[in-house]
Amino acid sequence: MNSLVDPLPGDSPRFSLHDFAPAQESFEDAVVEGLSGPRKSVPARFLYDEAGSRLFDCICELPEYYPTRTELKILTDKADEIGASIGPDIALLEFGAGSSQKARLLLDALERPAAYEPIDVSREHLIRLADEIADAYPGLAVRAICADYTQPLELPDSEPRRRRAGFFPGSTIGNLTSAEARAFLSGWAGQLGRDGLMVVGVALRAPSSIVLPAYDDAQGVTARFTANVLVRANRELGADFDVAAFRHTPTYDETTGRLTIHLTSLKAQTVHLAGRRFDFAEGEQLHVEESNKYAAEDFQALARSAGYVAETVWIDPGELFSVHVLRVA
Fold first, then answer.
1. What is the C-alpha separation between 178 and 173, in angstroms, rounded?
2. What CATH number is given to the structural domain containing 198?
3. How many C-beta atoms lie closer than 10 Å to residue 111's C-beta?
4. Same domain, 263 and 314
5. 17-56, pLDDT tens digit by residue?
6. Which pTM value belongs to this model?
7. In this structure, is residue 256 part of a structural domain?
């Protein structure tokens, strides 16, 4: 269902909210299903409750964690070039809107940006974000879209109709498998329309000596972030995970660029949840996250297979991160 809501009083609202009422996935159902399979797992999206989000913010400030600061430096240093590549009078559509720091770098660099359209499943977060952007950019059309961007939806029309540029920063696309990334890009190609654009941040393949510390820092913040999903299950679902009996375990394959994070059971143990028992053997792993790193040319080939032309790519001097501008063919 698509309903248009004016969250502010008055005849001239500062922004509009298009609420598609995305279904709220059950944490309990997802955990039970994940623990019931032959290879136990918990979907990574459940890492980001309030406590998990705070921990991730801390991770982004760690000296070992290079992706955030490297992407920000590219967006800052190359903002004018990126803006020129995108072109004027564009509506910027951000997937999974966060703090908007990166989107603001693009909005500042664009010539006559026509609109900012953040998409996120959190209605409250979107309203706060839209209000902040409307305050910072008077005259900019701000259309907040409460929806799951991985699911089909019909974007709100604008008058006059504007070209759109999707913005998918943070190497979030790396959390998808190659097949999922292709499906995401292909699906949004149709929404963006011919000559629409997609700006994507992509972490590059790098040596294990760089990648592994970024996901297993010396202070143990990332380990606490990962274990927080067990803490959350105990608190919200009445589970009895022995959090101290699981070890944060990242592995990385330099050849494929695939980084995988597990919680490894340090002993044989039983967990109770939702009236069921789940047995862990010593050394058994619970999959919680993966992050796929690409060679720049490999990502561009994936984008071509999804219906795009690779226009431009910017890469940092250390060749750790890339920002791509793709055009719908």
1. 9
2. 3.40.50.150
3. 11
4. no
5. 999 888 888 999 999 999 999 999 999 999 999 899 999 9
6. 0.92
7. yes
